[in-house]
Every structure is written in structure tokens, then in C-alpha cells.
Design brief:
The protein is α/β, with parallel strands linked by helices and 305 residues long. The protein has helices spanning 19-28, 47-61, 87-98, 110-118, 120-123, 154-157, 160-168, 178-181, 188-197, 199-208, 210-220, 230-237, 292-301; strands at residues 2-7, 34-40, 72-74, 101-105, 126-131, 173-176, 185-186, 225-226, 242-252, 267-271, 280-288. Helix 2 (47-61) links the parallel strand 2 and strand 3 (72-74). The structure holds calcium ion (CA).
């Protein structure tokens, strides 16, 4: 499968998420994927940081996927860059001119929405978009039964206008929800194993992500840390390891309500109810099957079987 990855890694930056770093290593070790390019964006950290980390990871660990730092293209620095061409949008255009691909959106959607706006013809060659975002109406994003902290749908919230642009185009869309990722946490013991058995990439992850792991376990009182973006890679390589169903997505509430909602009150809802007005069909991944743990771990360790 030809794929493009759009990502916002902040692994190693104190108090920031590390999951994009894991997803990149997983992708580099996935022979099902032909990685055509990687774009970077703001999100978990600023664009300069996410680009620096992605270039370093591509140069050091991208070899098995035929990737190095020249395949990394910086994109939007904020949601205000929506509509502005960047190295990311032009590199994606060149890749699509060669042949179609699947777009793995592990970050806010500004880069993709800009591309869809600037190059609608080329955008028809995107075979599928797999986005880490969306939610089931009424479901709260919590890790652990007693943990009161509620996670946000961060990639959506950081640029909901970009998400609206994506919903309006015809590309098949898979949503890999936060509620899916919170059901399968990477444990401290597994991180230690990566450091011990995973060669240079495993050592990198174990070293850079230890503080992140400890923060998850102590702050949220849960047995591990969420590797949200890894499930988007899994949705590309092993879709049968994620319970999924047809849903109908829309941005809710619509903006014609009497009171204008704040950005945090607007959600990308994926409902089981048949569409009434304006919803579009999506594939919604709600739950990883138990075998998903071993497959993700094997890929992080470098095993491709
Ligand atoms: Ca991400």
C-alpha cells in the first residue's frame, strides 16, 4: 500500500506526547507500506520541533522503509496557515502525480485541507484518508475506570475548519478514535523491552519516552501510556485487528445554533444513526482486538512477520 504520513512528533520534549515517534518506527518496520513521503505540522509541538524530530528519526531509522531526512517536508505552522502552499503540499502533489496513495493523518488536518483546497484534481487520487480523530456521541475519552481526567479530540480541535473541508470531499475516510487507542495502553514493561530488544530504534523510544510513560502512569493512575497514532498505522497494515463499522460523521453542533459554540464545544461526531442531513459515511474504528498488542509491539521491535 502506498502511503503518505502527516505527523506532529514531540517525543523527547518534556510534558509532550510521544505517540507519533512510536507510529513512525512502526511504519518504518511495516513491509505492507510503501512510504512515499512524510509531512510535518504543528500540533503536539511547534513546526520547527516536529520537523527536527521527524528528520532525525527518518535519517536514523527510516532505512528499512527506504526513507531518509530528504523525504520529510514541513507544512503548516498553525491553523492560520490553512490555504497557504507549503513544501508539504507541493511534495504531496508531486507524489500523487506519480500514482495514488493512502494518506495517514496523525495530526491536525491543516496540511491536508490546504492540499484539498489548492489541488482538488490531484486530491481525487487520494485513495483513502485515515485520521486519528472523531468520537462516538456520548462517549467520554477517559483512561482507567477511576481516572476523572477527560482527554480531548486534539487533532480535530486544533483545526476544525480543516476537518470540515475533509468531510466535504469524496475520499473514503477512516476515523481512528481516541476511544479506540485508550483501550490498549503501552506498558512500562513493554517500553523496557523495547529498550532491551529493539535495537537502535527501540533504545531511542525507551530513552526518549520514559518520562512520558511515567507521567501517564502517575498523573492518570493507569497501567501505561496511549500510543494513539500507532492505531492509524495498524488500520493501514492490519485493518482486521481493529473493530470497525460504518458510521455517519458530521461536525456538531452546526454553527447555526443561537449561541455560537466555543471551539472545544464543537466535535467530530460519528453516529450509528442513519444520516438525516449533511452526514457523510465513514469507517469508524472503535476497539483494538487483543492480537493488536503483539502486532504493534513486534513492529516496534523490528520484527516484520
Ligand atoms: Ca500525532
Amino acid at each position: 500500500m502506498d502511503v503518505w504520513i502527516d505527523t506532529d512528533p514531540s517525543i523527547g520534549v518534556p510534558l509532550h506526547e510521544a505517540d507519533d515517534g512510536f507510529a513512525l518506527i512502526q511504519a518504518f518496520h511495516s513491509p505492507e507500506l510503501h512510504l512515499r513521503g512524510i509531512s510535518t505540522t504543528y500540533g503536539n509541538a511547534g513546526l520547527a520541533t516536529t520537523t527536527r524530530i521527524t528528520r532525525e528519526m527518518a535519517a536514523r531509522f527510516g532505512g528499512p522503509a527506504g526513507i531518509n531526512d530528504t523525504h520529510v517536508f514541513p507544512g503548516a505552522a498553525s491553523a492560520h496557515d490553512l490555504g497557504k502552499p507549503t513544501a508539504a503540499t507541493e511534495a504531496l502533489r508531486a507524489a500523487l502525480a506519480e500514482r495514488p496513495l493512502t494518506y495517514l493523518a496523525l495530526a491536525p488536518l491543516t496540511n491536508l485541507a490546504t492540499f484539498l483546497t489548492l489541488h482538488p484534481e490531484a486530491a481525487r487520487r487520494i485513495e483513502r484518508v485515515i485520521f486519528v480523530g472523531g468520537r462516538t456521541p456520548g462517549v467520554r475519552f477517559r483512561a482507567g475506570r477511576w481516572n476523572p481526567y477527560e482527554f480531548t479530540d486534539g487533532n480535530f480541535h486544533k483545526d476544525n475548519a480543516a476537518a470540515a473541508i475533509l468531510l466535504a470531499v469524496g475520499s473514503p475516510l477512516t476515523l481512528v478514535s481516541v476511544e479506540c487507542a485508550l483501550q490498549l495502553l503501552l506498558t512500562p514493561r513493554e517500553l523496557t523491552r523495547l529498550g532491551r530488544e529493539g535495537g537502535d530504534p527501540g533504545c531511542y523510544l525507551a530513552t526518549k519516552a520514559r518520562l512520558w510513560m511515567n507521567l501517564w502512569c502517575f498523573c492518570f493512575a493507569v497501567p501505561g501510556a496511549a500510543i494513539f497514532d500507532c492505531f492509524a498505522i495498524l488500520a493501514a497494515t492490519h485493518p482486521y485487528l481493529l473493530a470497525s463499522e460504518k458510521r455517519y460523521a458530521q461536525i456538531s453542533p452546526a454553527t447555526h445554533h443561537d449561541q455560537v459554540p466555543t471551539p472545544r464545544q464543537i466535535h467530530l461526531m460519528a453516529s450509528r444513526e442513519p444520516p438525516t442531513s449533511g452526514e457523510r459515511a465513514v469507517t469508524f474504528c472503535s476497539e483494538p482486538l487483543s492480537e493488536a498488542r503483539e502486532v504493534i509491539l513486534a513492529r516496534l521491535l523490528g520484527a516484520t512477520g
